[in-house]
Design brief:
The complex is a heterodimer of chains A (345) and B (336). With 345 residues, chain A is α/β, with parallel strands linked by helices. Chain A is built from twelve helices and 14 strands. Chain A has a six-stranded mixed sheet, sandwiched between helices. A four-stranded antiparallel sheet of chain A has the order 2-1-4-5, with helices on one face. A four-stranded antiparallel sheet of chain A has the order 12-13-11-14. The model of chain A is unreliable at 306-345 (pLDDT under 50). Chain B starts with a helix and ends with a helix. Classes of the chains: A alpha/beta (345), B mainly alpha (336).
Chain lengths: 345, 336
């Protein structure tokens, strides 16, 4: 198995009693900054825990950094860092002592671990607080120490589970900056698990979307953003009938949304033919908006509760807020037709 | 702060340590945390002071056979003629039968040590039992251990080393250190040979006690998710098991070994075999019976309230206890 895939799973299955938390997950993820996106309870943390053998999987195989985790779990984890979502410090230990200890647990000699612990605490922006007991830290400091302990042994792959949880916007920005630097400056692959699109959108170059234990999408961020359905949503108050007749004449299927807007499947790669047609028949709309890109569409779909990919669902996504102007919407070109869910790269 | 924030990330290219170093790291840090309190250090000093007490007894004993012993001279001078006669008799006795006397003194002292150790063990373990596993479970630090280059068994071995090291100060260190000191202060190298079997007996009982009590301490710690609960499990465990053991032992004596202390105590008797020793001494030393008749209420040495105990049943009971503890602890620490 080539190590070009930092994570590879086949048929990964995890159940809690009758509930299936991970359902036959097949993934092959190359090195990079990987965003694991999904709503709370989607199975992101369980997925990471199964990869790291923190939870026993019910079926399937897992390879990390090219090594079968079942056969070489302990040795493979030497090269992996993990910052869990919850607090996990050891009571009574000072920050630098805790990170040093984690370095030793990961296989570093004491002297190297101590030096490296201070380097990592510098890296995450901890000052003299490092000499205080971790029990007394604020949420932001605890998050930083968690990241420091995940990096102290210089891993090749780091899992960060909801690292911005509980932080104020400034703290979130600092942590995201830090994570971005880890991948960009060191080429350490980072798996960032989050339920916030903004977090992964900002720093990840590859996205895995999980909902209800299934991988809904896996692709590069760039590709996901390019992909759109050839649809448009039109906000119109006058000449609605004329527009509908024009759609029928051209054979475009359409539907009326709850908010009174029209959704039309124009089948074109951009909005220009639709806008041209509206000009020809003399219909002016308040807003013409192309369908959201695949990333947004998937994310909106799962966060609105259906947890299904657009390909699974023929019904349109809930309407978006109509704040953008027609000009800005129509300036974007539509990409390839959607092909979700894609679970193998 | 901004300078610190801009610190560069440097890769580390050093050699990784082996798995035993990682296990030792767990033990080292755990010991540091466990010994952080003053009370536990006081009790450990108290436990270690048994060494000095034993060494003192061995030193006094060795003075009976030492040529030109200042201690004997002083005792004879202060005690009068009766004491001088008794001391001369004892000295002759020791010199005639060193294999019985030397071994007897060491064996008796190590046997007596096994009475104080359980109490000290319960108190000392109660002072740090919550720091073994309960704190890791409560603070979720167990996740960190499991995510590192360790297996659950590595974690348990490290934790076991913590409690075994501390209990060794109670059970093993006094035996080894007093034996060494006693022999270094003895006038004759033959003391080493004659006292060696007693050392082995003391170490055997100590090792069994340390291993079984360590497993039980891990069990008590793993059952709790709060510090106070761990101490409660440890203390109540002994009370409940002791009570159950006393109750069910009426039906069958073997059930008494439900209590680990009862099992350790009986195992100790089986290893030290004090009744055999007394009977052997009576056969070899002509005035042994008479000596005991004068100094005790018993007319015959065989009436002494010492038993030979048994080895197999209590050992099996302790082994079962350890196996059960390890099973439960391993499940507790691997529960997700």
């Amino acid at each position: 198995m080539p190590e070009s895939y930092v994570i590879e799973t086949r048929g990964l299955l995890k159940r809690y009693g009758q509930q299936t938390v991970l359902d036959d997950v097949d993934l092959a993820i190359p090195a990079g900054a990987i965003g694991l996106l999904g709503p709370n309870g989607a199975g992101k943390s369980t997925f990471i825990k199964c990869l790291l053998q923190l939870q026993n999987k019910d079926a399937g195989t897992v390879s990390l950094l090219g090594n079968d985790i079942d056969a070489h779990g302990r040795e493979t984890r030497k090269r992996i860092g993990y910052a869990p979502e919850q607090d996990c410090h050891i009571p009574g230990m000072a920050g630098c002592e805790y990170v040093t200890y984690c370095g030793e647990l990961a296989g570093m000699p004491f002297e190297a671990a101590r030096q490296r612990a201070h380097e990592m605490l510098d890296f995450v922006g901890m000052g003299q607080e490092r000499y205080r007991k971790v029990d007394t830290y604020s949420t932001g400091m605890k998050q930083r120490v968690k990241i420091a302990q995940a990096l102290v042994h210089d891993p090749d792959l780091v899992f960060l589970d909801e690292p911005t949880n509980g932080l104020d916007p400034k703290g979130q920005a600092l942590i995201l900056d830090l994570i971005e630097r880890v991948w960009k400056e060191t080429s350490i692959s980072v798996v960032l698990s989050s339920h916030l699109l903004h977090d992964v959108d900002r720093i990840c170059d590859r996205i895995v979307i999980i909902a209800n234990g299934r991988v809904l999408a896996h692709d590069s961020l760039e590709n996901l953003k390019k992909r759109r359905k050839a649809e448009a949503e039109i906000m119109i108050t006058q000449d609605r009938e004329r527009l509908v007749q024009a759609f029928q004449k051209r054979g475009w299927s359409y539907s009326s949304l709850h908010n009174g807007n029209l959704r039309v499947e124009h089948g074109e790669t951009s909005l220009n033919p639709l806008l041209g047609m509206m000009r020809e028949i003399g219909v002016s709309a308040l807003e013409v908006r192309e369908s959201p890109n695949a990333l947004n569409e998937l994310f909106n779909g799962i966060t609105s509760g259906n947890g299904r990919s657009p390909a699974d669902s023929p019904s349109p996504s809930p309407p978006q807020s109509s704040s953008s102007s027609p000009s800005s919407s129509s300036s974007k070109n539509a990409g390839e037709p959607p092909a979700f869910p894609e679970t193998k790269q | 702060m901004s300078d610190v924030w801009n610190a560069e990330y440097r890769r580390w290219h050093g050699e990784s340590t082996g798995v035993w170093s990682r296990r030792l790291a767990i033990a080292r840090y755990g010991l540091r945390l466990a010994l952080a309190g003053r009370v536990i250090r006081f009790f450990l000093v108290l436990a270690f002071s048994q060494t000095l007490l034993l060494a003192g007894v061995f030193f006094v004993f060795s003075q009976f056979v030492a040529p030109e012993s200042a201690l004997l001279d002083w005792l004879e001078e202060t005690g009068g003629e009766g004491v001088a006669t008794l001391l001369k008799a004892l000295t002759s006795w020791f010199l005639l039968y060193p294999e019985i006397c030397v071994d007897g003194v060491y064996r008796t002292m190590f046997f007596l040590l096994s009475f104080s150790c359980p109490f000290l063990s319960v108190v000392i373990v109660a002072l740090f039992v919550h720091r073994l596993i309960a704190n890791d479970l409560a603070s979720q630090a167990i996740v960190i251990y499991n995510s590192k280059a360790l297996t659950g068994w590595d974690y348990l071995l490290g934790k076991f080393a913590i409690v075994a090291t501390i209990l060794s100060v109670v059970w093993l260190l006094p035996v080894i250190a007093s034996w060494i000191l006693g022999n270094l202060l003895s006038p004759d190298w033959s003391f080493f040979w004659h006292s060696f079997p007693s050392l082995l007996r003391g170490l055997t009982v100590g090792l069994v006690a340390v291993v079984s009590l360590s497993c039980l301490a891990l069990l008590a710690s793993s059952l709790a998710r709060k510090s106070g609960a761990a101490v409660g499990f440890w203390a109540l465990g002994w009370l409940v098991l002791g009570a159950i053991s006393s109750a069910v032992a009426r039906a069958n004596q073997a059930f008494a070994y439900i209590s680990p202390f009862e099992a350790i105590s009986t195992f100790g008797e089986g290893v030290f075999r004090m009744r055999d020793f007394v009977m052997e001494a009576r056969g070899v030393l002509p005035f042994f019976d008479g000596f005991f008749a004068k100094t005790t209420e018993f007319s015959d040495a065989s009436q002494l309230p010492v038993s030979n105990g048994e080895i197999l049943a209590p050992l099996l009971s302790l082994a079962a206890c350890c196996a059960l503890s390890i099973l439960i602890v391993s499940r507790r620490v691997s529960e997700k």
